[in-house]
Write a structure and sequence with these properties.
- The chain has two domains: 2-118, no CATH class; 152-259, Immunoglobulin-like.
- Strands 3, 4, 5, 7 and 9 form a five-stranded antiparallel beta sheet that branches. The protein has a four-stranded antiparallel beta sheet with strand order 8-6-10-11, with no helix packed on it. It has a two-stranded antiparallel sheet with strand order 1-2.
- The two termini are 60 Å apart.
- It has helices at residues 2-9, 11-19, 31-34, 59-63, 83-95, 107-110, 126-147, and strands spanning 26-29, 102-105, 152-158, 165-166, 172-182, 188-195, 201-203, 209-211, 216-225, 233-243, 250-259.
- It is an alpha+beta fold and 260 residues long.
- The chain contains seven helices and eleven strands.
- Bound molecules: iron/sulfur cluster (SF4) (2 copies).
- Residues 29, 34, 54-60, 71, 87-88, 91, 101-102 line the site of one iron/sulfur cluster (SF4).
- One iron/sulfur cluster binds next to α4 and α5.
């Protein structure tokens, strides 16, 4: 299951094929050095047997968390964990061959277009600068949204099943459902009020709403307005949800009141 998540769900694999070019530092198997692969006796020079450095032990495949064989070339499933590098280096140590049969290198360096010591100087190219810029913008946006994050959110839904009702006192009444989402790790307490029409009031009046840490609480409220102001049609009103813990903190949400 873990391999399937890496192969089909992880977005990193999809990104990397689009972002790579021949100068991108990738984990690669050095085919020129490793092939032809094959088992040999310890201490035997592989060249005398017409073999490369890969002894075909399969350890690089066994340690790979996504189960690929890096010797088949770069594959989109590779998550760049470098486990195959460490495993192969250990094998090379044991058989007395130089490390780095699987190593960090670039496609162009492997093809001999430039020596591997020139790889760091290839960092200065427009693609890298552009990605660094995009990454910085994303980071700044993420940090800003974290700093500006509201400690609570509010969602207001007017009950459309009962549009408007007349109370015993002759006032007009609309029903609302107010959902308060506590986005912090502390319990919060709120008080709700309504404004927008002269004399408009809410029932229950000033009843505190307790919302536990990271939870959501829904409350049903009735809003009553004087019919001389709440004339036929829709009137804009505002609910003010104020934190009792921090009275300076409040959210104002627009809604509508339907007159007769
Ligand atoms: S670990 Fe190294 S030697 Fe063993 S199969 Fe993989 S590439 Fe070849
Ligand atoms: S870097 Fe990790 S994921 Fe990629 S081939 Fe090597 S072991 Fe597998």
């Amino acid at each position: 299951m873990r391999e399937q998540v890496c192969k089909y769900m992880c977005p990193y694999a999809r990104f990397q094929s689009v972002m790579f070019d021949e100068d991108t530092l990738i984990i690669s198997y050095d085919e020129n050095r490793g092939e032809p692969r094959g088992a040999r006796k310890k201490g035997v020079d592989p060249k005398t047997q017409n073999l490369g450095d890969c002894i075909n032990c399969g350890i690089c495949v066994q340690v790979c968390p996504v189960g690929i064989d890096i010797r088949n070339g770069l594959q989109y499933e590779c998550i760049g964990c470098a486990a195959c590098i460490d495993a192969c280096d250990e094998v090379m140590d044991k058989i007395g061959s130089p490390r780095g049969l699987i190593r960090y290198t670039t496609e162009a360096a492997l093809e001999g277009k430039y020596p591997e010591k020139e790889i760091p100087s290839r960092l200065k190219r427009p693609r890298v600068v552009m990605y660094a810029l995009v990454l910085s913008i994303v980071l700044v946006a993420a940090i800003t949204s974290l700093i500006l994050r509201k400690p609570f959110k509010v969602d207001i839904i007017r009950d459309r099943a009962s549009l408007v009702r007349e109370t015993d006192e002759g006032w007009l009444e609309n029903n609302y459902s107010i959902k308060i989402i506590n986005t912090t790790e502390q319990n919060q307490h709120f008080v709700i009020s309504v404004e927008g029409l002269p004399g408009i009031k809410m029932v229950p009046v000033n009843k505190p709403v307790d919302v536990k840490a990271t939870e959501t609480e829904s409350v049903s409220v009735r809003v009553q307005a004087d019919p001389q102001y709440a004339t036929k049609g829709s009137h804009e009103i505002h609910f003010v949800i104020r934190s009792i813990n921090n009275p300076a903190l409040h959210v104002e949400e627009k809604s509508s009141f339907i007159g007769e």
